[in-house]
Design a protein that fits this description.
The protein is of the alpha/beta class. Helix content is 30%, strand content 19%. Strands 5-18-17-12-11-10-9-6 form an 8-stranded parallel β-sheet. It has a 4-stranded antiparallel β-sheet with strand order 7-8-16-13, with helices on one face. A two-stranded antiparallel sheet has the order 1-2. α5 runs parallel beside α6. It binds flavin mononucleotide (FMN). The site of flavin mononucleotide has 26 residues, from β6.
């Protein structure tokens, strides 16, 4: 397939295959051989145009630019730092943290699909104690805002993690992954507005300092209903979207490819869904409530970034695309600056929500 040409330059291809060795290295906390397979992607430093202001405000949290990592796709920081100067990001978002360590699902837990991938990592993570002892020191030195993704199976799990992390100065935000099944009935917290609101309220009562980000699940009938519940519960920021439920089947064995049978779909394949949902959340809830949105779902280049900003996003998280090229965040910043200049705009904030 030929790659589209923009302004004489080839756009980063969204159809390029994901290197699953890379995906496994980036997503598996137990892997020590992180990212080495990707060194071929690291050539060339972008030239950032300082005359355009890329800074954005996330509920009082200032980011030098809107680009951040999407949770679960770049470990806790050190794994990714080898391939990108993390200080160039607007913020770093960690993989999930739960009260106790979790091994996650058995392999295979990732599979490539058309324009994306399925993952069933199963929220593997080092747990709260090891996160604080071993991971926070690196994040404290980073010098950019850090947002920690939080998971649980009970309301108390979220409360425990958020209460402890709220005490740590270098953690600027807590992002609640509400796509976790509740231990009592197996239903996700983020698919029922009453349950979501009471979860957010319960966490809010335990946190004073860090911004509370609620990450919306796309696996619902109306994402705006969930956004409203999260805002009523006290969310400072909304993020959207998490992965869509999906499946892949091996035609020789006639079995599901993922050991977990199903997984979460991410990457360019979900971008139109994500774009719609971000715009729906923005127009129905976030704009009037004054609550900023962090968008994610297939963001792979500056054009995607512009689309999500127009749709109402303030922050932009890059996930699956990092497995194709870990320096995509820098290319997006460059492309955004050039785009804003070409439009005679001085600040990226002029784009937010300007969809006609
Ligand atoms: C391998 C992998 C692991 C993920 N782990 C988490 C996680 O721990 N917590 C979370 O909230 N989202 C997790 N996500 C979802 C992403 O943060 C993001 O919402 C989603 O992948 C859509 O963005 P993308 O298309 O740019 O990847 C994960 C996604 C992938 C691909």
């Amino acid at each position: 397939m030929s790659r589209p040409i923009v302004g004489g330059k080839a756009r980063p291809s969204i159809a390029r295959p994901i290197d699953l060795r890379t995906a496994t290295a980036l997503t598996d906390p137990l892997s020590g051989a992180m990212l080495r397979a990707m060194s071929s992607h690291t050539a060339g430093d972008p030239t950032v145009d300082l005359s355009v202001d890329l800074s954005v405000d996330l509920a009082g949290l200032r980011l030098a630019n809107p680009i951040m990592t999407a949770s679960g796709t770049s470990g806790y920081g050190p794994e990714y730092a080898e391939y990108l100067d993390l200080t160039r990001l607007g913020a770093f978002v960690t993989k999930a943290v739960s009260p106790e360590p979790r091994k996650g699902n058995p392999p295979p837990r990732t599979v490539e699909t058309h324009g994306g991938m399925l993952n069933a990592i199963g929220l593997a993570n080092v747990g709260l104690k090891r996160f604080i002892d071993e991971k926070v020191p690196f994040l404290a030195e980073l010098g950019i805002p850090t947002i920690v993704n939080v998971i649980g199976h009970r309301v108390e799990d979220y409360q425990t993690v958020c209460r402890e992390l709220d005490k740590i100065e270098c953690i600027s935000g807590l992002e609640l992954n509400v796509s976790c099944p509740n231990v009592d009935d197996g239903l996700e917290f983020g698919t029922d507005p009453k349950r979501l609101k009471s979860l957010v309220q319960a966490v809010r009562s335990e946190t004073k300092r860090a911004k509370l980000v609620v990450k919306l699940s796309p696996n619902v009938t109306d994402v705006a209903e969930m956004a409203a519940a999260a805002v009523e519960g006290g969310a400072d920021v909304l993020s959207a979207i998490n992965t869509l439920r999906g499946m892949a089947i091996h035609v020789d064995t006639c079995k599901p490819i993922l050991a977990n049978r199903m997984g979460g779909l991410s990457g360019p394949a979900i971008k139109p869904v994500a774009l719609y949902m971000v715009n729906r959340v923005y127009t129905a809830v976030a704009r009037d409530a004054g609550v900023p949105i962090i968008a994610m779902g297939g963001i792979s280049d500056w054009r995607d970034a512009v689309e999500f900003l127009l749709a109402g996003a303030t922050g932009l998280a890059v996930g699956t695309a990092l497995f194709v090229d870990p320096r995509i965040p820098l290319h997006i910043c460059d492309g955004l600056s050039a785009y804003l200049q070409s439009k005679g705009m001085k600040s990226v904030r002029e784009l937010i929500g300007q969809l006609k």
